[in-house]
Amino acid sequence: MVFDSETMKGTVDMLATSDHSSVVSITLFVTLLCACIVIGHLLEENRWMNESITALIIGVGTGVVILLISQGKSSHLLVFSEDLFFIYLLPPIIFNAGFQVKKKQFFRNFMTIMMFGAFGTMISFTIISLGAIVFFGKMDVGLAIGDYLAIGAIFAATDSVCTLQVLNQDETPLLYSLVFGEGVVNDATSVVLFNAVQNFDLSHISTAVAFQLIGNFFYLFISSTVLGVVTGLLSAYVIKTLYFGRHSTDREVAIMMLMAYLSYILAELFSLSGILTVFFCGIVMSHYTWHNVTENPRITTKHTFATLSFVAEIFIFLYVGMDALDIEKWRVASNSPKTSVAVSATLLGLVMAGRAAFVFPLSFLSNLTKKAQHEKIGLKQQVTIWWAGLMRGAVSMALAYNQFTKGGHTQERGSAIMITSTITVVLFSTVVFGLMTKPLVRFLMPPHSLLRMISTDSLTPKSFAVPLLGESLDSEADLFLGNGITSESREIIRPNSLRMLLRTPTRTVHYYWRKFDNAFMRPVFGGRGFVPFVPGSPTEQSVHNNWPEEPKQ
Amino acid sequence: MVFDSETMKGTVDMLATSDHSSVVSITLFVTLLCACIVIGHLLEENRWMNESITALIIGVGTGVVILLISQGKSSHLLVFSEDLFFIYLLPPIIFNAGFQVKKKQFFRNFMTIMMFGAFGTMISFTIISLGAIVFFGKMDVGLAIGDYLAIGAIFAATDSVCTLQVLNQDETPLLYSLVFGEGVVNDATSVVLFNAVQNFDLSHISTAVAFQLIGNFFYLFISSTVLGVVTGLLSAYVIKTLYFGRHSTDREVAIMMLMAYLSYILAELFSLSGILTVFFCGIVMSHYTWHNVTENPRITTKHTFATLSFVAEIFIFLYVGMDALDIEKWRVASNSPKTSVAVSATLLGLVMAGRAAFVFPLSFLSNLTKKAQHEKIGLKQQVTIWWAGLMRGAVSMALAYNQFTKGGHTQERGSAIMITSTITVVLFSTVVFGLMTKPLVRFLMPPHSLLRMISTDSLTPKSFAVPLLGESLDSEADLFLGNGITSESREIIRPNSLRMLLRTPTRTVHYYWRKFDNAFMRPVFGGRGFVPFVPGSPTEQSVHNNWPEEPKQ
C-alpha cells in the first residue's frame, strides 16, 4: 500500500499548521481517549454499546463543538491522514490480532477463510462496481469508469477493526475466526484491486489483464506471508540465541516490538500487504518468540500489544468521528442533497447485496466439504457472518480519500459526493449495524450454546494445540497438550496416512506440521517447552518438566 | 517549551518529502534500533562502552553511508526535528526516570538538588555567556548580544538522558539522584533562561528584569510540579474509584500511559516545563496509581515504561549521530575551519569551567548543612558530579537549532558555525567524556564501597520508605517498612517536634508527610496497602495483611 506523495499532505497539514495547534490537538486527542476509555468502562455491561461506537459518538460530538467554536472553519486541524492510519495505527491492531488469535481455529478454517477473503471479495467488488455503473450513471454523479471500479474496491473492504469489537473470540470462536480471517485476507484483496484499478489500462479489459490480476494477488499473498513468517522466525532466533533475559527484560520487549513493526514497514517498503505480513508475524511470534523470553516480558508483551491495539482502535474511531464533520466536502455536496442521500442509500444497498452474494453461496460450498455436522456453517451463522462483515471503517475512508481527494481537499462535485457518501456509509454501518450486532448474535445464538468453548487460560496465547485424536475439542489430549508438554512425551496413534489425508486433510497436515515443528523448527527457534525453565518464574501456570537447556531431541 | 511555528518545518520536511521516502527512513530507523539493541547487548560487559555511544557511532556511520550513497545531498531525509524530540521522545524518558527513581534518595537530597539545578545553572549560564562575549567577540564570529546569551542557556543544559546512561542508580544512588535530579531542574532553568533571552528586551537589563526572571522561574517550577502531581493523583483516583482491574487489564495500562503523557502535553500547552511535570507525575504514579492496579498491569507498566524510555534514548542518539553529518552547515562553516575549531574548543572549555564554578562551591555549602560524615559530598564525589554533568546532548542540539536556524536550515556564517560547534561539543562530550565516565567512577569509587546499597527488590519501585529511626540505611525499620506494611501497624517514637525539625529537617518533614499520607491521601488515592488484596496474584512479593476493601482507618 504505497500511495503517491500527494497523500502525505494530510499529515503535513495536520502537523504543520503550527507547533501550538499541534500541541492543542494532541492534548485534545489524549483527553478524549481517556474519556472514551472511562465511558467505555462504565458502559461495559450495556448490551448495545461497544467502545468503537462510544468513540465514534464522542468524536462526532467533539467535531460539532470544534465547528461551533471555530465558527465552521476548523476542518484543517483534523484532516484525515491516511499515513497516520496506515503507518502508525493499523499495524498494532493487526499484529495484536495475529498475536492473540486462536491459531487452532484459524488454521482449521483456513480454506474457508481464503475462499471468503479472496473470491468473496472479488464477487463483492464486481457487484458493487456494476451496481455503481448502473445506478450512478442514471443519477448523473459525473464520475469516470475508473472511479466506479475504485468504488467497488473501496466498499469491498470489510472493516476488520470493527469486527474485532463486535464479535467475541471466546464466545463465538468459529465466527470470529471466519469473519476476522476473512477481513485480513479481504484487505489484501481490496488493496490489490484498488491498485489494479489505478494502474491498469482499463479501456482494454482482457483475459490477460484478468490473469495478471490473479497472478498479482497470489504473488502478494504469498510474499507477504513469507515476509511475516521470516521476520517472526528471525526475532525468535535472535532472542533465543542471545538470550537477552539474562541481562535485560527491556531489551527483549524492545526487540519484539521493533521487529513486529519492522515486518509491517518492510512490507510497505516492498509494496506488499503490510496487514497480511504483520498478521502472520504475530502468529509466528506467539508460537516461538513469546516462549523464548522470560516471565515478565511475556506478561508485558501480551498486555502491551493488547493495550496499544486497544488505544489505536479507539483513536481511529475518534478520528473518523471527528473527520466526519469536515465542512468543506459537505458544503460542496450539499448543493445536491437529494443525489447525496440517494448515493449513500444505493451504496449501503450494494454493500449488503454484494456481501449476501458471496456469503451464502460460498458457505454452501464450504459445507459440502465438511462431513461432521458441527463443523458446518448453519444458516444462523451465515446470517451473522453476513451481518458482521457489513461494517465499513477506516480502511474504506482511507481508500476513498486516496481516490477522490488531493491531499484531503476536494472541490469537484462528484468527488465531494463520494467522500460524504463514504462518511455516511461508514458512520451508518458502524453505528446502526454495530449497535445491532451484539443483540443479533445473542438472538441467533443464545449464550448457553456459546459457552462451551470459553477459554479458561487467560494468560498463555493458545499454541497449536489441535487435538490429534478423536473429534471432541475438549478431549483430554487437548488439555494435556495445552499444558506445555510436547507431543513427544506421549504415545501417539499415527494417522493412516493417505486415507486420513483424504478424510480429514487439515488434521493430517497438522499432524505432519507438528512433527516437523518439533523435529526441526523448535530446536532452532525455540517455543513452548524448548527454552530452559527459569526457576521461580511465578506466573508460569503450566506444568514444567525442567527441560535441559536447548534440547536437541 | 512552546516554540514558534518555524520550528515545525523540520518535522514537515522529514515527513513530507514523499510517502515512500518516509517509509524508507522509518525502515532504516527501526532496523538500526534493532541493531543498536543487539550490539549494545553484546557489548554489555565492556567497561568503556554504553548504549548511547554505540547508538551515536552507528548513527554517524549510517550518516556517512547515506552521504556516500546520495553523493552528499541527503541531509533533508533526516533533518533534526525539535518537535519529534520534545513531543515524542523526551516524555517517556523523563516519565520513566520519575517512575523508577528512588524517591527516598531524591527527597533526602531535595535542597542540594534544587541548589545545583537552579543556582548552579544560573552560575554556569553567566560564565558561559560572559566567556562567549569575551572570546567570540575577539574571533569575529559575527553574533549579536542575544545570541551570546542564548549560547549560555544552550550550553548550561546538562543532558539528563546521557547521565542516566553513565551513572547507575543501584551502584551510586547518591550521585545518581544528585546528578539526575539536577539535570531535571537544570532543564527547566535553561528553558526559562532561553525563553527569557528570546523574549526580554536585552538592551535594558535592570534589576526589575532580573526579578522578573527569578519570579518567572519560581512560577514555572511550582506550577509545573503542581500540574504533574495533580495529574498523577487524578489517575490514581480514577483507577481506584472505577477499579478497572475487575474488567480489563488493558484499560488500566492504557489509562496510566495516556494520563502520563497528558501531564506532559498539558504542561507544553500551558508553556510550563513538561519535563518537570512529567517527572513529578511519574513519582506520584509510582506512589499511588501503580499500587491501585492489579498484578499484571503492574508488571506491564513497569517494563513498558522502561522499554519505551530505552528505545527513545537509543533513537535520540542514533538521530543525533546521523544529523551530525548534515552537510549544509558543514559546507558553510568549512569556509573558516580555524574559527570553527576555536569556537568548539572554547565552548568545551567554558562548559567545563562553568560547571566547576558551581559544583565545588555549592557542594561546600551543602556540606556545611550536613552533620553526619556519610551524608557529606566528598571531593571524589564532587569530581564525579562535575564530570558526569559535562555531557551535552539532544536538549542542547534542539535549543541550538531553535536559535540559529530557520526550520533546520541556515546560510549565515555565524549561525552555521554555532550549529557545527554545537554538534562537535555534543559528539565530543558524549563520546569522549561518556567513554571515560564508567572507568572514572570505578577509579574514584571502587566497587566494594558501592555495593552497600544495591537494591534486591527488582520488581517494586521503591516507595517512600525513609527510615524513621536511627541513622543506618539498612536498619530493620527500613526493611520492615519496605515490605508493604504501613507504619500504623508498628509503634513509632514521635520525633521531638521542634528540636527534631531543626536538627534533621528532611526527616521530620518526612514523618509528618507520612502521617498526612496515611491519614488523608492514601484512603482517597490508594497506594501500597490501601487497595484490596487480589488473591493469587503471583508476583506480589510483599507480605499482605488482607486489607478490607477500601479501609477508612
Describe this structure in words.
2 copies of one chain form a homodimer. Chain A is mainly α and 553 residues long. The first copy, chain A, has a single domain, classed as Up-down Bundle (Na+/H+ antiporter like fold). Chain A is built from 22 helices and no strands. The first copy, chain A, has helices spanning 9-16, 19-42, 51-70, 82-100, 103-108, 110-139, 145-155, 160-166, 173-199, 207-242, 249-269, 274-292, 295-323, 327-333, 337-369, 379-388, 394-404, 413-444, 447-450, 476-481, 497-503, 505-525. In chain A, helix 6 packs antiparallel against helix 7 (145-155), helix 6 (110-139) packs across helix 9 and helix 14 (327-333) packs across helix 18 (413-444). Residues 1-18, 449-493 and 533-553 of chain A have low confidence and may be disordered. Chains A and B meet through helix 1, helix 2, helix 11 and helix 13 of A and helix 1, helix 2, helix 11 and helix 13 of B. Chains A, B: It is found in: Membrane. Chains A, B: It comes from Plantago maritima. Chains A, B: Pfam families: Na_H_Exchanger.
